Predict the structure.
Amino acid sequence: MNRISTNCLPEVAEFLGGSPLKAVIGGKEVESSNREVFATCDPGSQEILAEVAAMQPDDIDCAVRAAAEAFARSGWAQLPPNERGVLLHRFADAVEKRKPIFAQIESLDAGKILGQAEGDVQNFVETMRYYADLAMHVQRRSALAVAGHEAWTVRQPWGPCGFIFPWNFPILLAGWNIAPALAAGNTVVIKPAEDTPLSTIYLGRLAREVGIPDGVINVVPGFGKVAGAALAAHPGLKRMSFTGSPEVGRLIAEACGRNLMPVKLELGGKGAALVFDDVDVEQTADRLVQAITFHAGQVCCDATRWIIHRSIYERLVSACVRRMREVKIGHELDPAAQMGPVVSQKQRDRVLGYLRRGAAEGANVLLAGGEAAVSGRDGFYVKPALLAGSLDNVAAREEIFGPVAFLTSFSDEEEALGLVNRTDYGLANSVWTSDLRRASRVAESMVAGNSWINAHNVFPHGVPYAGINQSGMGGGVLSVETLFDYWRSLSVVRPLENSDPTP
Ligand code: ADP
């Protein structure tokens, strides 16, 4: 691997030039206790972007202590919601002002098309503003009508909360998860993925500049088995939120269970797009191909199983194959590129492995996919692929996390719903039809946390987004309830005395 040769914005070059980049703990930049570092690279070129501190269990302990100290003593938890809201709005404004910097950092670190990275940064800004405003407008106290007593409940922040994120949407997921926690008055310790730690470190530094008290936002880069495991098992945390694979999700839930700590898990998926015969075939092909090639298919709620009415199956397949062949694959900063690389060699091997195993198990290969070459860039590029056949195929059952869809056909609605629901996951599905009555009926019968109609990957603020079964537990993100998750409920009661004035 070589050092980066791409022309960066001066601020990005300066940030990367500070390598090895440190953790942010208690408002200070901190190296790891044993000075270990790891390299993070541009998946579009394999060039090293920076080295980053690999935090150790004793460092994680310091970070949790800093978050606990800030919760107890910085005044953050006691701020009236409107004053905390002012600081969070200032934070959102500062991120927005630096959108080109954040977007370039995110694009290079995750291999994400620059325009999509800009969208993720904007989403962070909007999530922060949404929760800052919401916390000002919900009632934290509710009076209870109880005979002979004065009683009420009050919602209080929990304390230091831990967050572990994956590499596919680092800044966007940080927003979805830490914004409600911060708006509610908690303090946070964030362990970004080792493949994509950069935007979160930059975020941690910026928090200080806008006046968020030291220790309210701590960022601890490092390896999952070391830094992540130490964070999940830390008895000083009050809540945990994890986004990633079901395998690691189980480990996190076990660790939290031992400490009797509430945990929110957002895991994988194997979503379906259920396409009826009354759709506009060309428009549906556009949207399905857009969804599966978006961020090279590294999206947990993607439509990876396309269940298509048999009367339009051939037409839809050829419309999709045509489009997928034309997808322009390129480096994430190339303005002409529509699809960038996958995040790592490991991820490319995973995608190619599923293509091989799917074909070996008898899948019909509609579009072969495979490694893609991008001139002058030695990155982890793959072509989009389409397989078809029985949904018992490994490529139809397991999460691939690449630009690969598995297709099958159906004849009637009941059969189609059976196929959609034949999965251990339960994150998100979509139904495609011009009959809106059927759309609602089918949307409500799909067994998952989220159903979309004539669209896929839709996340308005205010609509809860959560998985069930192997896709998650513990409440979701993006809604009013998420804010409430970051408040514990405390009841207060006083027996009335004879001397109390009658109301
Ligand atoms: P992915 O397959 O998307 O990399 P993972 O679930 O492996 O998903 O990783 C998601 C996050 O979980 C990353 O930040 C990673 O470092 C962290 N992680 C991995 N293993 C562990 C573990 N044993 N304990 C805690 N965190 C972990």
